[in-house]
Amino acid sequence: MMILSGDPPRSRVLTLLLVVIILALAATPFLFPGAKALNVAAKICVFAALVASYDLLLGYTGSVSFAHTMFYGIGSYAIAIALYGMGPNWAAVATGIVIGLPLAALLALAIGLFSLRVAAIFFAMITLAVASAFQVLASQLSWLTGGEDGRSFQLPELLRPGTVLISKNLFGFEINGRILTFYLVFAISALMILALLRVVNSPFGRVLQAIRENRFRAEALGFRTVFHLTYANCLAALVAASAGILNALWLRYAGPDTSLSFSIMLDILLMVVIGGMGTIYGAIIGATIFILAQNYLQSLMGVASQAASEAGLPLLPGLLHPDRWLLWLGLLFIASVYFFPTGVVGRLRKAGGDKSADASH
Amino acid sequence: MTELAANDPLPKPKRDIAPVLLPIAVALVMIPLIGSPSTWLTLTAASLAMGMMIFIMASGLTLVFGLMDVLNFGHGAFIAVGAYVATLVLAPFAASIQADSLWMNLAVLAPAALLSMAVSGALGLVVERVLILPVYGQHLKQILMTTGGLIVAEQTLYALWGPQIIPMPLPASLRGSFILGDVAIAKYRVLAMLIGLAIFIAIQLVLNRTKLGLLIRAGVENREMVEALGYRIRRLFLGVFMTGSALAGLGGVMWALYREQVHASMSDDLTVLIFIVVIIGGLGSIGGCFIGAILVAMVANYGGFLVPKLALVSNILLMVAILMWRPRGLYAVTSR
Fold it and tell me: Cα–Cα–Cα angle for A213, A219, A224, nearest 5°?
């Protein structure tokens, strides 16, 4: 249990689910052939880490941030601009990391000191304002960021799909640079999630939960709440920026739609709430459910919309159109905040008779 | 504390006029920077008109927060709904909109605006009952629920009207400008200023001169005490929420006419803008909201003229500056 920081899933069904998800992700290159499956798996890994870092804020400190995609975007753009400007080599990757991560942390520090000092309610609004300004900035500074088109770039030699590491006739599978990149994404995401698990189960994490439950009382106990909240904000920003780096490396592209847009922020919110706030494990479950639905349910909606319009039903074709899938997610979101505030993880823990599951909310 | 004799009049409440002077000072400082007085006048008129429209949209949000501690992230949805509903009236009567007669134009515009207000007000009722009532008193869930509401409203608008931008031309008689010497002030901006000012005065009168306003102000300051005195503050709140939603709808119509187009994404952009205004003004303060709206509009107009590149982040800079000066906004009316 050392690796889980003494915080196991605490539910048999949940443990089984997590093991299945992780094994499936790890074996994706061999089990599910095709580029789409690998893309989906990589996206699940990146988002699981991103959502887990958001859970540190939302679930453990109870502060709603709308700037999380900004940090994600900073990571993506840092690596993309470095690799675009310096060419596909490892020095560029290092430069992107060395510039991107501190930048995200500093910005998080500034926002935290500025808005967490006053009132918790300001934090949500100020992060929303800052994030939208950053989004406009990124699309306007086109000499640096490529504007609306974003930046496409080449990866270093080792990570390219053309690089064959182990040829096919050895195992029956070809291990190429693409698969190596996938495992890089998988391993770093897993490490970050384990690190976050460590953070929330440390004394520091306990203080965060105390602040969530009653900030005034935590302050009365002698904890400098602004320090703790800002620190958590910076940590979350660092993980988000790292997830952004992974995402950009996987896509070989960074642009406003894939790394900055407000809809990604909504996706993250949905994943946290569906998975279960304040559990970290919820991030893995939420990201998996959401991204599978996003990639495979949308085509189902297209079929339903087609059928509805052929049957001559009014309104339904428009409502079921694949582009309107956010509508249904929005409804699902409201319903899950209302009916399942503890998300899938909370439900499973409760079903398993774990008494401490409800205590966290 | 000085002793008061029995016959002395009560001490007048201290008036805090520094925030009122701020926009005036900003405007005056800009005269030498802009150089040409006629450009300055045009820009100032533009700022005032834009500020009034933003104020109309933001006023409901700040009151709702002040009164009930409810942060409605879906406020922008009412703006977009208002604008879309107005197209329902304006599109069939396009002919009388294009007729060059002020009365004929107004005969279409006024019902359109009223219908928008009615629909967004009614939507406010639904939102309050369905989304806010169940999570009353829980900030986190309020933010999540209302954000969900915003997504659903926006997507429903897309589903009903389609994703394209709908043009919304200005009525013929409101096109063009009044020319005074070498100063040109767009006619529509004058109308927007008049409506905004009328609404500001109406809100101030209701808040300061009626019993209803007294209860609302008392509720902002101390909700429990008003409840303890036997007033049903929930009903009061519902009324304020619906009024705020209706005003947001009206603001949406005015904004759509100002931009001459309607699109569901306007709710996102304007949400950010009105949040900044509400934060600058101090949550719950109508006067602060009014000044904040004018300041934001001034920064947008003057800034856009002087340093166009800065216009992207100017709102954030303004907010940072104001919060450095007064960490809880221009007027801190709530104890929260």
Answer: 115
Say which CATH number the domain at A218 has. 1.10.3470
In whole angstroms, what is the distance from residue A48 CA to residue A42 CA? 10
**pLDDT digits 0-9 by tens, A287-336:** 999 999 888 877 788 788 788 878 777 777 777 777 787 788 888 888 88
CB B262 within 8 A of CB B84: yes
pTM: 0.84
Q: How far apart are CA B218 and CA B216, in angstroms?
A: 5
Is residue B304 situated within a structural domain? yes
Residue B36, classed as helix, strand or coil, is: coil
Task: Report the C-alpha gap between B62 and B247 in whole angstroms.
Answer: 12
Q: Which range marks the domain in which residue B243 is found?
A: 53-325
User: Quick one: A216 exposed, middle or buried, by C-beta within 10 A (0-12, 13-18, 19+)?
Assistant: exposed
Question: Would you call B233 an interface residue with chain A, using a CB distance cutoff of 8 Å?
Answer: no
What's the gap in Å between the CA of A163 and the closest CA on chain B?
43
pLDDT tens digit string along A100-117? 999 999 999 998 887 776
CB B324 within 8 A of CB B83: no
Report the run of H or E that residue B186 belongs to, with start and end.
strand B183-186
CB pair distance less than 8 Å for B147 and A269: yes
- ipTM score over 0.85, yes or no: no
Tell me: pLDDT of A156 over 70: yes
Number of domains composing chain B: 1
Q: Identify whether B13 is part of a domain.
A: no
**What confidence tens digit (pLDDT) does each residue in B101-114 have?**
788 888 888 999 99
In this structure, are residues A65 and A58 in contact, taking their beta carbons and an 8 Å threshold? yes
Q: Which helix (H) or strand (E) holds A310?
A: helix A298-310
Residue B281 domain-assigned (yes or no): yes
Residue B278 in tokens: 């509400």
State the Cα–Cα distance between residues A43 and B92, nearest whole angstrom.
47
3-state secondary structure of A116: helix
Instruction: Say yes or no: B149 contacts chain A, CB-CB below 8 A.
Output: yes
Helix/strand/coil for A164: strand
Range of the domain at A32: 2-359
Which residue of chain B comes nearest to A341, CA vs CA? B141
